[in-house]
Amino acid sequence: MIGEEFNNSKIKIGELLVKNNLITQSQLQEALEIQKKTGKKIGEILIEENYISEYEFKNFLSLQKGYKQINLSKISNEIDVKASNLISKEYALKMKVFPFKFENEMLAVATLDPLNIYLNDELRMLTGYEVEPYISTNKDIEVAIRTYMSDEHSLKEVEEITKDLDFSIEDDLAEDIDLQKNPLIRLANQIILKAIMMRASDIHIEPQEKHCLVRFRIDGILQVIREVPKTVQRLLISRYKIMSGMDITETRLPQDGRSSFNYHNRFIDLRFASLPSVFGENISIRILNREESIFNLQNLGMPEREMDVYGKVIKQPYGSVIITGPTGSGKTSTLYASLTQISTPEKKIYTVEDPVEYKFPHIMQVQVNQKIGMSFAASLRAMMRSDPDIIMIGEIRDYETAKIAVEASITGHLVLTTLHTNDAPSSVARLFEMGIEPYMIASALRCVVAQRLLRRLCPACKKEADMSNIVISDEVFSILKDKKIYEKTGCSQCNNTGYLGRVGIFSVLLVTPRIRKMILDKSGTDAIENQARQDGMRTLLESAAEKVADGITSLEEMYRVVF
Ligand SMILES: [Zn+2]
Hints:
With 563 residues, the chain is α/β, with parallel strands linked by helices.
């Protein structure tokens, strides 16, 4: 494989190697002995006998003969896979060639045998480029082929997809991404950038039987962004696994990993999780904006009247505050906003969460880990020994946790937590059901906030609704009568959904002296609700109607979420 010319000058090469102190005279003699028996080329023998490394030998040859030589492992940044994938992987492996870049309109090819005219001709015909051969080592070429070349030309498909309009991005950062020569890395980054720009909270790569779906969760709703072919699916998933530090060879067990993305100097945390399915591994990526400014009760949509009540309660040094609602109703954001609002340097704030969704610089956050016995209750017991001022408990799921929370609030701590109930009054009943004594609840509980998230109408395309055929229900008639009511349309800014961003609606039940008395008497949910309404509590429906009256959301969205 070393080329005809070398065979003719074999003795000379051996002597030159000795002269240059790359091998000894006795090594050369031994090699010549072997050559007599085997007829192998002298270079091959010297390499096999470990008298010289393949790299040193090739380097020496190139210096002697004036060939360009290349160490592929040292130029990985310059490798242009567009060049590499001009030929098939099978051909590259068979012929031991690796095109690695374009150079003066020629194709630079790493080869073992720069003088093989037939091979160079063949490459020229296959690729349409004149070939500039570089001598390289067998190992380097093979590693490069396996690293940069893909089966079935799927990188070409990746290339096509990245050209597709769906992923084209009008952004300064997109230019950096376009500079990325590997179309696979480019596609992986484009998907993430696109998701950030569309304000998605999650990216899902979901293999199906015949293709693979890329879906974004935007404003709480999953949207199909596009389909990619199966060949691209495998590459894309591998890329994300590499990016997030997962084990790329493990495909049968779920894994998780993380990475980050700098978007216009905003650090975006990316949390990756893989989950094997029958059609291949699913990858989901959670996009977490590290900026805390978004955790602001006003920005979350809490109206002034509720802010007044709630803001006073969380400024108290002790007591329990419960945020309630189904999964995805924004409870965690409200807890974070509350902590942000009351956080001062002298206050010790601890959280127990599952999972920790955002990292705060000045808050001690503990991740629940059932596997090692760090349940909510166990974490809380450990935490109480460090004498915290404020405790945030991600969720109360059991008696044990509820009991610790209630005890902590009675003994001088402010406890913020969440429950899974439909409305504020039923949270009291839930605590009864969990086995907490009414007198404990009555002395601990300060207020319960029920909440939901409504999608905001896109300000660019919302239009006034024709109300002539619409009947407004009695409960909200007084809020909505004579108001301009808007409905969705859909435009390019809102991805044709008619909605852009979300807003919270809140129902705040303040534990007044009368309510406290009712809790002690173990009154029913309806009775507590009636009293709370007399004391000024607005329902979720009323809170939603107010957002409709303000033109922030639509009637349709109000009924979707609150009814
Ligand atoms: Zn719009």
